[in-house]
């Protein structure tokens, strides 16, 4: 069975990680201005133009989501990954603000509970998958188990020793294979998967962390742990490169989104989502002649009410 990924516009292919390709994140831009017109504008004008584009995409997304919900043939899974402060929460809030909440769910994955650790690493993610007609968003995802866990092996769930140890390359190859097969199974059963790595520079992350530390009203958004994790920046970058190379496929590709400009990243994410849904060629359910007659009768009764 030939399974293919989402249909998107040609210019978006610049940001896709080609299957089997070696990934060096330094070769991907962290700053991006959507198009040449925005590059020539000052920041305020660029923001305004990007906001206009995003608003149009939100309107298209609202219509596309309604059709997805009505058709109920496919589900859409959006995966958001990125370093701390990369803009995952903001992307959800701004891009999905026009979507009907009934047709959308957001799942955030923190440190696994003891119950979750007692199952295979994909178990807790399987329980949160969107049903047909729905959009599901993973704010962090099953990829944490080949990212944070790889950088910090002490967070690994308890496994029989004979199944291998995190120190071996074979162990991670197995995990990548499990993820690819998990996603292939979902795609074969009607789930469209869009995976976004929000690519932020270390310099921009420092700026965003300092913005939070300089504003007491934002203290709730930060912890000393966030700053301490910067010491592992190179380890995370290496883990991301290996993960992107091993798990970007034709049926579930990774998009590396330049995220230093929040407004630009949000616009691009919205564009990809809208194009993917519109590319499914969905239709509203057909109403039979019998149903039409019943509806007309109901209308007649309603009009004749006193």
TL;DR?
With 306 residues, the protein is α/β, with parallel strands linked by helices. The protein has helices at residues 36-39, 43-71, 88-95, 114-117, 123-126, 148-151, 169-188, 202-213, 224-228, 233-247, 262-278, 289-303; strands at residues 75-82, 104-108, 135-139, 191-199, 254-258.
Question: Which key phrases capture this entry?
Answer:
5 strands, 5-stranded parallel β-sheet, 12 helices, alpha/beta, 306 residues, globular
SSE inventory with pairings:
Layout: H1 36-39, H2 43-71, E1 75-82, H3 88-95, E2 104-108, H4 114-117, H5 123-126, E3 135-139, H6 148-151, H7 169-188, E4 191-199, H8 202-213, H9 224-228, H10 233-247, E5 254-258, H11 262-278, H12 289-303
Parallel strand pairs: 1-3, 1-4, 2-3, 4-5
Helix pairs in contact: 2-11, 3-11
Account of the protein in words:
It is globular, with a radius of gyration of 22 Å. By secondary structure, it is an alpha/beta fold. It has a 5-stranded parallel beta sheet with strand order 2-3-1-4-5, sandwiched between helices. It has helices at 36-39, 43-71, 88-95, 114-117, 123-126, 148-151, 169-188, 202-213, 224-228, 233-247, 262-278, 289-303; strands at residues 75-82, 104-108, 135-139, 191-199, 254-258. Helices cover 45% and strands 10% of the residues. The longest helix has 29 residues, at 43-71.
């Amino acid at each position: 069975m030939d399974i293919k990924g989402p249909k998107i516009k040609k210019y978006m292919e610049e940001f896709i990680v080609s299957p089997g390709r070696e990934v060096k994140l330094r070769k991907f831009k962290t700053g991006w201005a959507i198009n040449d017109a925005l590059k020539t504008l000052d920041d305020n004008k660029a923001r305004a133009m990007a906001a206009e584009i995003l608003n149009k995409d939100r309107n298209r997304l609202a219509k596309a989501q309604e059709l997805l919900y009505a058709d109920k043939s496919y589900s859409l899974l959006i995966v958001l990954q990125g370093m701390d402060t990369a803009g995952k929460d903001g992307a959800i809030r701004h891009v999905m603000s026009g979507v009907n909440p009934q047709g959308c769910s957001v799942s955030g994955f923190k440190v696994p509970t003891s119950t979750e650790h007692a199952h295979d690493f994909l178990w807790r993610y399987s329980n949160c998958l969107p049903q047909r007609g729905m959009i599901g968003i993973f704010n962090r995802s099953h990829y944490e188990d080949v990212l944070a866990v790889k950088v910090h092996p002490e967070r690994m769930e308890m496994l029989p020793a004979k199944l291998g140890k995190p120190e071996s390359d074979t162990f991670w190859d197995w995990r990548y294979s499990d993820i690819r097969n998990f996603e292939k199974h979902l795609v074969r059963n009607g789930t469209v998967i869009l995976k976004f790595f929000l690519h932020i520079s270390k310099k921009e992350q420092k700026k965003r962390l300092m913005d939070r530390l300089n504003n007491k009203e934002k203290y709730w958004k930060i912890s000393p742990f966030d700053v301490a994790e910067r010491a592992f920046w190179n380890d995370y970058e290496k883990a991301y490169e290996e993960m992107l190379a091993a798990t970007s496929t034709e049926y579930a590709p990774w998009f590396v989104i330049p995220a230093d400009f929040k407004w630009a990243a949000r616009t691009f994410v919205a564009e990809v989502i809208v194009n993917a849904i519109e590319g499914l060629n969905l239709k509203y359910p057909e109403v039979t002649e019998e149903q039409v007659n019943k509806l007309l009768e109901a209308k007649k009764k309603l009009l004749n009410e006193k």
